[in-house]
Amino acid sequence: MLKAIILIGGAQKGTRFRPLSLELPKPLFPVAGFPMVYHHIEACSRVPDIKEILLTGFYQPTDALVKFIQDTSKQFKIPIRYLQEYTSLGTAGGLYHFRDQILSGNPESFFVFNVDVCCDFPLEEMLEFHKSLPVNVKFTMLATQATKQQSVNYGCLVEDEETHEVRHYVEKPQTFVSSTINCGTYLFTPEIFQDIGEVFQKNQDAMFNGGLDNVGNGRDTIRLEQDILSPLAGTGKLFVYKTARFWSQIKSAGSAIYANRHYLELYGKYHPERLAENCDGGPKIIGDVFIHPTASVDHTATLGPNVTIGVNVHVGPGVRVRESMVLQGARLEDHCCVLNSIVGWNSTVGSWSRVEGTPCDPNPNAPFSKIEGDTLFKNDGRLNPSITILGSNVFVPAEIIILNSIVLPHKDISDSVKNQILL
What we know:
alpha/beta, seven-stranded mixed β-sheet, seven-stranded parallel β-sheet, 8 helices
């Protein structure tokens, strides 16, 4: 029997995802028509031995989160529970705090996921690899390749090519260590709690002996990567399964557009029925497009490639949408154009208006290149060109251009804007 634990974080996380995370928890933000965490649960549902899924974090259990868990559990016929931390306990601290819940039913192993990754998860292959390892106490991490320049932005590991043991692990090193990077997906046996427990006890002892700053709950915070994986490297217990499948982080709104593209591509593999097709009386579809059944799309509109149209969205005559996400309740009026953008909940783009951003895709000429997690501003204080984001309830009147800008919720735009953040 297996379990899966998804680390969803909390309210003070996901600040780079604003203004999209102002309206609902980041794990519930819809990517390719479904909440971010839904894709992890769907991947777990394809592994027959996973009998329970646990979400851990320190979000308040809002109505939206409770309803999502109930609906998803019913859909996949898998028990799903949310375990709320009393404060931020770190990626390993939360696991240790809820160890009794995780170990109930005596699972032989359990998957652990970071929620802010987008991946064609090779869970069954990873499980077979894990079972084939010749040792009893074993922990497996999923890894992929990155460019030499970008690898220092991730956890880097050095493996034994014959045994696949992790010999060395460093989280975001100062200098180049390896182009093999951590994917934030793990398969642990229950023995991992012995290693986490040793770090927990060490923190407690240090705190009471004056060696740990007694501010907030620092003594209870345990980081999986730095505090657990790094010491485990070279002990003969930590192994790596490398995948060539698609993987990316979802740290910023720009990376959500990139993840949207690849989840739509995966629908062609796992759920082709979710993708819209050209048909008589329907809009023109180019490439992969998801249209929610409740959306109203005029037959003269052109959508795609890589477009998601959400719940109760209205798309008027002559509208053009490309490489964009249009969220619930939004209205795209006649002949407007939306490119490389996210149109927020209940926002309106007026007739003949243009909302356009700059894609922040990985370098197509560099193998294994990942999307850059650039900051919003350049060193001289100017805004970095990026996708355009309209927060919720934004009104863009007719014949207006919004270019490379971020508009916070509840704004009525009066003039065209370029490279601005509208507060």
